[in-house]
Fold this protein.
Amino acid sequence: MAAPHDIEALIARVALGERAAFGALYDATSAKLMGICLRVLDDRSAAEDALQDTFVKIWKHADRYAVNGLSPMSWLAAIARNTAIDRLRARRESAGTGIDFDLLPSGARSPEADAIAASEVGRIVACLGELDPDRRDAVKGAYLGGLSYADLAEKFGVPVNTMRTWLRRSLLALRECMAR
Amino acid sequence: MTDHDFSPGSPEDDDALAAEHALRLLEPDAERAARARALSDPAFAVRVRDWIARLAPMADGVYPVTPSTAVRRRLMTRLFGAPERGGWLAGLRLWQGATALALAAVAVLGWQVATTGRVATLYAAELASADASLRILAVYDATAGIVRLTRTDGAAAEGRDLEIWGIAEGGAPVSIGILPDDSRTALYPVPAALAGVPAGLTLAISDEPDGGSPTGQPTGAVLAAGAVSEL
């Protein structure tokens, strides 16, 4: 996997409309993003469609990366994950609304953002380890599987409000753990 | 663990909502409301962004899965337009740079006579891209069964390779080889499928992944082509 600053440089060139950089970005990151789409969709053909949609968005919105304050792979992975989830939910209900990256504010460098970006990769894994197994599985089910509150409630056999309380407490515990 | 107070409008409630939105936990109505709020409330948008950043390393354990080559091709076609119809060479200008060929031929003939004392039957083509940024001279020695390629201008893009194909009239492309990154000249044996087909043979260059096409046919753009002519 190419180094983050290489990915960042490619995104900057894609933002300028450079097709060769876009091809290189695809070659460097498509396997990882395909893996993410496949975790959510669990269907090769649907995942490839989501991957294609993902890269179309990357081509169109590369100019917004610089104002997001996310690391390059976080930004790419978030687009892939959201695109896959949109596709997953479109199968079942009226079209889902994905996070629109228009809404992330400009001038987004902040002490919190820098601290998050600098924190070790292992932090969230360690902090997840501090949760009860059920809670941990619920967080992972949401993130990696694209499951909603309703999906998780059904999966764990609890009312939606109970799942909501479980997850809210777990997410805030995660935040506190990662801030230590 | 401290008992959290999620009373509506409290900072903890806001942050929990931001986390739920980043995770896509919310049902459609609630998701639409959260999205609308993020558009009008920059502080909330920052909370959402921070949660996206916090959770992102959870994807680190996801195994990479290489998509099929068709995905890349369909993507590029969708964004940048379809390659022209009519086969591999439609729309490409076939170059015949007489002066360059003559020079190349003299060099090759001289080498042939010097090494073997025998004059070979030679065919040549000049391949150039539309903007002439990529130019390759090809000399096809039908007697020895060798193609000599000289890259005079241009090179493969980073992480990509240039692959040379021979196309008999009406036939499918046959791979001759991949141009080396570290040398301007290379020799290749003529594939059996192309032996004895010099008249009407076209040589073409395509842009391929590192290591060449994985499928045995061009997967990337055909950058240049040239018909061989006898020297």
User: Anything to note?
Assistant: The CA atoms of residues 120 and 133 of chain A lie 22 Å apart. Chain A has a mean pLDDT of 86.
